[in-house]
């Protein structure tokens, strides 16, 4: 049999096989500390669960319009106005099955065969893969602490080519947790505009930031494409709900795409998500953000005791990108050995970085402080044997 050649360009997500080994060890009675998957140990907030249950009881199980429930699109627009100072017409918001659904729509609209797409390396691998599936070539630009682990205006200008169509950012970033502030974000947007391209910003970790106030490119660049989700800040990973904010002219073709590729996002999930914007829910979510900030600080304190803390601490998301070159230049072997010897599951950098992934790992601070401290002690023991 022969498959579509584009699929051959899609690398497996290595963290999934690591998770499988971790789960098998757990089933065999080992006490595994999970710091590998991008999903905190919090349940979906109770007001959202109740609203979802009420929607099911009320028979809200039929298709919504392809672009989503009007009330939810309005609630998201209200969220932009209230928290990010962005005036957004609800008609520019399409509700999607997770940010993944939004990325699918945006990549199919913006990146075709022969187009080049600029993004930072390291990045969230699926973002790269969506572009490859659309037929585009990805130019992954190596970034490091000197540009705050992000593309900046100078890098975009330097790497832009005649057939570059799109620049993609993710802020806060997965896997580094680093953010672009409003000034640097606007500078990238101006550069992309001057180059005659489009800007796509993945803001899925928006709201999960610990040093800078949360921000949206929508406040300064109304013609940017913006991906977001209920998965992370709102604690709704398994509900599969996200959104795409698009310039007005793109809404019609995007809606046509949505009608064809998924018809509509989950109806009960959309009704549940309406409760995510209530003050009651906001209070829960903000308490969780503060808890994640404390976890970050505990992990940083532990790593600095081992002399391993990164020079630039993560400002957002729930990830820490750690250089382990002092002890390993094979992050996959490093992660496997740490799991097998000490039952600590973290992710090899090769999942995220085309350059330098072999000596980086990603640690997700998605579990409580005591477990993080225990993980650092196990890491210390592990390193002492190296
Ligand atoms: C940067 C980034 N974008 C998009 C996604 C997709 O998220 P979802 O489809 O759950 O909304 C993830 C998931 O981890 C992510 O880290």
UniProtKB/TrEMBL annotation:
Domain of life: Bacteria
Required cofactor names: pyridoxal 5'-phosphate
GO molecular function: pyridoxal phosphate binding; transaminase activity
Enzyme Commission designation: 2.6.1.-
Ranges of residues in domain Aminotransferase class I/classII large: 31-379
Keywords: Aminotransferase, Pyridoxal phosphate, Transferase
GO BP, sorted A to Z: amino acid metabolic process
Keyword Ribonucleoprotein: no
InterPro entries the record matches: Aminotransferase_I/II_large, AspAT/PAT-like, NHTrfase_class1_PyrdxlP-BS, PyrdxlP-dep_Trfase, PyrdxlP-dep_Trfase_major
Top-rank EC class of the record's enzyme: transferase
Stored Pfam families: Aminotran_1_2
PANTHER family: AMINOTRANSFERASE, ASPARTATE AMINOTRANSFERASE
Family of the protein in this entry: Belongs to the class-I pyridoxal-phosphate-dependent aminotransferase family.
Protein name, UniProt field: Aminotransferase
Organism: Halomonas saccharevitans
């Amino acid at each position: 049999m022969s498959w579509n050649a584009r699929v051959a360009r899609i690398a497996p997500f290595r963290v999934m096989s690591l998770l499988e080994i971790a789960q098998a060890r757990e089933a065999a009675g080992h006490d595994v500390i999970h710091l590998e998957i991008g999903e905190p140990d919090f349940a979906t907030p109770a007001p959202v669960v109740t609203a979802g249950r009420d929607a099911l009881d009320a028979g809200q199980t039929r298709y919504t319009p392809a672009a989503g429930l009007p009330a939810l699109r309005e609630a998201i627009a209200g969220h932009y106005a209230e928290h990010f100072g962005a005036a957004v017409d609800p008609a520019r918001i399409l509700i999607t099955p997770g940010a993944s659904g939004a990325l699918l729509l945006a990549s199919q609209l913006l990146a075709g065969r022969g187009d080049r797409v600029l993004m930072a390396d390291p990045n969230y691998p699926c973002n790269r893969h969506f572009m490859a599936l659309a037929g585009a070539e990805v130019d992954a630009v190596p970034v490091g602490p000197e540009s705050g682990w992000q593309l900046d205006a100078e890098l975009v200008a330097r790497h832009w080519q005649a057939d570059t169509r799109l620049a993609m950012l993710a802020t806060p970033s997965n896997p580094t947790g680093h953010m672009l502030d409003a000034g640097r974000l606007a500078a990238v947007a101006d550069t992309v505009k001057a180059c005659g391209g489009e800007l796509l910003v993945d803001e899925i970790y928006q709201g999960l930031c610990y040093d800078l106030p949360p921000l949206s490119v929508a406040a300064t660049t109304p013609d940017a494409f913006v991906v977001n989700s209920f998965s992370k800040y709102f604690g709704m990973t398994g509900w599969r709900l996200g959104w795409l904010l698009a310039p007005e002219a793109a809404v019609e073709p995007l809606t046509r795409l949505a009608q064809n590729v998924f018809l509509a996002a989950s109806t009960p999930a959309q009704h549940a998500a309406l409760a995510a914007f209530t003050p009651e829910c906001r209070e829960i979510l903000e308490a969780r953000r503060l808890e994640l900030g404390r976890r970050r600080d505990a992990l940083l304190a532990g790593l600095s005791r081992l002399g391993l803390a990164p020079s630039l601490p993560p400002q957002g998301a729930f990830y820490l990108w750690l250089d382990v070159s002092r002890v390993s230049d094979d992050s996959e072997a490093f992660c496997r050995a740490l799991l097998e010897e000490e039952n600590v599951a973290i992710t090899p950098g090769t999942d995220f970085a085309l350059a330098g992934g072999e000596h980086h790992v990603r640690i997700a601070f998605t579990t409580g402080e005591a477990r993080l401290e225990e993980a650092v002690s196990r890491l210390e023991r592990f390193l002492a044997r190296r």
